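Quick one, tokens below:
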């Protein structure tokens, strides 16, 4: 029987010479740590054996909130290997957010930073979690200590395409996060398509600079390198100067637009510095056309922009080489997200769900082997987000031109994308409305030179109350991940409403659009 465990596919792509370097760390200060392919194989076996020794039910959730480290990546791979379900959590999440995820997902195992063990373990044990381990970014903590006692041989758990591999929480329009269930088949099919479409080659080296708790850094980047047997240069935190300095040793780079904006501010970014590079990829948020042009002028490279989601992994991409499906097109068109990837069906529909004419704007719907299985324990939400013929409603609004290029022009979902992180206004408004003196609030996204877009809160006071905007933000900061905190807050007499009583966020966006320009 063929084992369709994603780990098996990744493992099969390891080079024959297992002593070659698979990952090399770079923090610009300490000596680099080198991990061979053999190290990856052995360490994931030991961690998988540790998980197996716990005698967990099949497909248990392993929830992980730790700083980026190679060991954190190994834990992800080991979770696949052991046949459990990986649940990554942004390190910025605070206790109320973590409590929600743990209560909702009911993980059997939670792994957290040693410094957070006190409060995380309290939440986890109260929610019925059986094991809480710690993992520091310096290899400290109980997880590696326990794994060190395990055998370094392990046969990957047998999995089918339809079996769950990961749950990624993504907030919803109603405010509370939904867990997108991704299967081994979703992840493998997307990784294989991207390997071919982006022309991964022998000798490619990925400069890995993104966090590893979201689709971009965890799946697109890590799978991309592993499935091609390519080495990674591993930055534990994005530092533009360090990233530019390491371009000389790499061939592939992936970033959200903010990373490109920050690297452009470095004088050391030159054509010569980027001369070994083969491919710069951008996604997770719209890439401004100025950034696209500036990057070309400074480095000689045309950024390849692509589009994806937690629910679908990658959906579209500008071409890397000639795309035979589009008359051999090779042009990477700035402002577009390219063509639907091979195997992905993408259509543009009007409000009634009917396909619109070429070039017309509408809602984007998608279908393909990469599209997730549904939202964790939310069958009604899942049903709402799929059409009767099985297409997923992305909530993005766009068009396809006569050459087949997809352009995203907006979103029908109320969502702010800030530096590549999603901020759901409904969630922030819910917290704001609970604060003393606040009658109601609206959060809108406005342009920002660094983060692309940031949230601005507009608050109406309760009669007689005089809430202090700075104090409101300071209180929010104790409750929510830092990237969700509005960058500014205004107290106003009323919110603009239409005749139906709905807040006219477009007017607020217009009013505050130049706040950061
Ligand atoms: C940090 N801050 C942000 C922010 N990141 N504010 C708004 N938006 C963000 N994204 C704020 C913090 O709140 C803090 O504010 C201050 O900046 C410094 O925090 P930091 O953590 O030191 O910031 P920094 O390291 O500079 O982080 C910036 C960043 C990071 C751009 C490197 O945001 C990042 O790694 N973004 C990538 C996100 C990503 O990987 N997205 C992929 C999603 S997958 P204060 O006031 O507290 O000091 C997806 C699907 C797809 O969308 O298609 O890929
Ligand atoms: P997430 O829920 O974090 O997976 O975010 C997915 C959302 O990011 C998509 O629905 C889009 O709105 C947005 N997105 C991803 N890539 C791009 C891109 N290249 N251009 C514009 N928006 C993008």
């Amino acid at each position: 029987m063929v084992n369709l465990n994603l780990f098996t596919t990744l493992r099969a792509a390891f080079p024959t010479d297992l002593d070659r370097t698979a990952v090399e760390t770079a923090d610009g200060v300490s000596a680099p740590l080198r991990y061979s392919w053999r190290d990856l194989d052995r360490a994931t076996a030991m961690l998988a054996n540790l998980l197996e020794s716990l005698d967990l039910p099949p497909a248990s959730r392993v929830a992980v909130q730790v700083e980026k480290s190679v060991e954190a990546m190994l834990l992800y791979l080991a979770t696949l290997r052991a046949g459990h379900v990986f649940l990554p959590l942004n390190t910025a999440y605070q206790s109320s957010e973590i409590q929600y995820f743990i209560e909702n997902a009911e993980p059997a195992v939670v792994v957290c930073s040693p410094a957070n063990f006190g409060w995380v373990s309290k939440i986890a044990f109260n929610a019925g979690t059986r094991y809480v381990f710690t993992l520091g970014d310096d290899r400290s903590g109980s997880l590696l200590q326990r794994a060190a006692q395990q055998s370094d041989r392990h046969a990957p758990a047998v999995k089918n395409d339809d079996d769950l591999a990961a749950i990624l929480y993504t907030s919803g329009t109603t405010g509370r996060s939904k867990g997108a269930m991704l299967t081994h088949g979703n992840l493998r099919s997307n990784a294989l398509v991207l390997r071919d479409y982006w022309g991964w080659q022998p000798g490619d080296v990925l400069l890995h600079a993104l966090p590893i708790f979201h689709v971009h850094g965890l799946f697109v980047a890590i799978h991309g390198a592993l499935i091609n047997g390519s080495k990674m240069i591993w930055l534990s935190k994005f530092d533009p100067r360090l990233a530019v300095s390491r371009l000389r040793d790499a061939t592939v780079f992936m970033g959200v637009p903010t990373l490109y904006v920050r690297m452009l501010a470095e004088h050391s970014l030159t054509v010569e510095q980027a001369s070994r590079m083969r491919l710069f990829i951008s996604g997770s948020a719209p890439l401004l056309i100025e950034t696209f042009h500036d990057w070309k002028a400074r480095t000689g490279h045309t950024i390849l922009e692509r589009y994806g989601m937690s629910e679908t992994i990658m959906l579209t991409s500008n071409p890397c080489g000639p795309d035979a499906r589009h008359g051999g097109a090779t042009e990477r068109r700035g402002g577009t997200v390219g063509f639907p990837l091979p195997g992905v069906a993408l259509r543009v529909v009007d409000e009634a769900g009917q396909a619109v004419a070429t070039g017309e704007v509408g809602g984007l719907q998608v279908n393909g082997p990469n599209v997730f299985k549904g939202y964790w324990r939310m069958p009604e939400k899942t049903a709402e987000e799929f059409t009767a013929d099985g297409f997923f409603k992305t909530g993005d609004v766009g068009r396809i031109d006569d050459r087949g290029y997809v352009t995203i022009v907006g979103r029908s979902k109320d969502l702010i994308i800030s530096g590549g992180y999603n901020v759901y206004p409904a969630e922030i408004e819910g917290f704001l409305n609970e604060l003393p003196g606040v009658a109601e609030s609206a959060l809108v996204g406005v342009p920002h030179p660094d983060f692309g877009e940031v949230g601005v809160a507009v608050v109406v006071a309760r009669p007689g109350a005089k809430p202090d905007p700075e104090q409101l933000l300071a209180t929010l900061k104790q409750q929510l991940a830092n990237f969700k905190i509005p960058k500014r807050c205004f107290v106003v007499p009323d919110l603009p409403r239409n005749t139906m009583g709905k807040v006219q966020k477009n007017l607020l966006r217009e009013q505050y659009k130049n706040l950061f320009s």
